[in-house]
Design a protein that fits this description.
It is a single chain. β1, α1 and β2 form a beta-alpha-beta unit. The chain folds into 2 domains: 105 residues, Rossmann fold (3-Layer(aba) Sandwich), CATH 3.40.50; 45 residues. The chain contains 6 helices and 4 strands; from the N terminus they run βαββααααβα. The protein is α/β, with parallel strands linked by helices and 161 residues long.
Length: 161
């Protein structure tokens, strides 16, 4: 980290938007708002994120990595179910099973078990690999994770080590 008078001049700032799109969340929206104003204070934001559904904001550098899809999406595909619809709306599942309390409880338990700590945990390896490459290319003065989820903060930590 730079010290003294030049500490606030032309630093590079790393924003790890691990909770960002493909499914936007409040953390990614807040950090995009922060990144918007960082250049006014001499910071050059670089955002690491899974592949975005649209074009990234051109005001700052956005580095997109592959995203294998959420754990639930991949599970539904392997069961030949529609990945975009909840279990209760799947046409191949009998109505009695879809609406039953026991089925709903079992699915909730299975979902919590396979997605722990969250649905996007499989992005970790892509994020760390790309982050290490970026850290070799540039000197970053700050790393920031956008999520309270443990593995996403671990991603930021592992890139720094």
């Amino acid at each position: 980290m730079k010290e003294g008078k030049d500490a606030w001049n032309q630093n590079e700032y790393w924003l790890s938007l691990t909770g960002s799109p493909p499914r936007p969340c409040i953390a990614s929206l807040r950090l995009r708002g922060l990144a918007k104003y960082l250049p006014e204070f001499g910071w050059d934001p670089v955002i690491l994120t899974p592949v975005l559904p649209g074009e990234p904001n051109q005001r700052f550098q956005v580095v997109q990595t592959p995203f294998p899809g959420s754990v639930l999406t991949r599970l539904k595909k392997s069961l030949h179910l529609s990945p975009d619809k909840p279990l209760s709306e799947q046409p191949g599942i009998p109505l009695a099973n879809r609406e039953g309390k026991l089925t709903r409880r079992i699915w909730t338990f299975v979902r919590a078990l396979i997605t722990y700590p969250d649905e996007y945990k499989d992005w970790y390896h892509y994020g760390v690999e790309t982050g290490h490459n970026l850290l070799r290319e540039k000197q970053f003065d700050a790393l920031l994770s956008s999520s309270g989820c443990l593995w996403q903060n671990k991603l930021c930590h592992d890139m720094a080590c």
